Amino acid sequence: MEKYQKQLEEEKKLLESELASIGKFDKKTNDWVAMPESEEKAQDVEDEGDIADRAEDYEGRSSALSVLEKRLEDINHALSLIETGSYGNCEICGNKIEEERLDVNPSAKTCETCMNKVI
Ligand SMILES: [Zn+2]
Question: pLDDT digit string (tens) for 23-58?
């Protein structure tokens, strides 16, 4: 169990630094938001192609951000389960999640059987 906690905490740190590189945490909404282009840069834009490129960049960051955020949520969830002592149980059938599965993905929420059912 301890090794998973360590793994999860390391991944959490990694995710948070990745999040911080493309966005910032908005304390008002308690949510991560993608970093907009700086105003300075925006004034340099001359043709529409550039504007489209920048919009794509922003969208790319936004979607990357939501993927990372979802992953961070799963990890925080797993960490809270470790705290309450219910870590490692399948959320669907309640059986123990296979150890090999947790080795690959410590934030797995379901056992292999249920995962296959979901898909
Ligand atoms: Zn299950």
Answer: 998 899 888 889 876 544 545 555 667 767 777 788
Distance between CA atoms of 96 and 90, rounded to whole angstroms? 6
Question: Average pLDDT of 75-99?
Answer: 95
**Cβ < 5 A residues, ion ligand 1:** 90, 92-93, 111, 114
Contact 35, 24 (CB under 8 A): yes
Mean pLDDT across the chain, nearest whole number? Answer: 87
What is the distance in A from the centroid of ligand 1 to the CA of 119?
13
Give distance in angstroms: CA of 96 to centre of ligand 1: 8
- Ligand 1 centroid from CA 98, angstroms: 10
**Cβ atoms 34, 62 nearer than 8 A:** yes
* Beta-carbon contacts of residue 36 (< 8 Å; ≥ 6 apart): 58
Burial (Cβ within 10 Å: 0-12, 13-18, ≥19) of residue 49: exposed
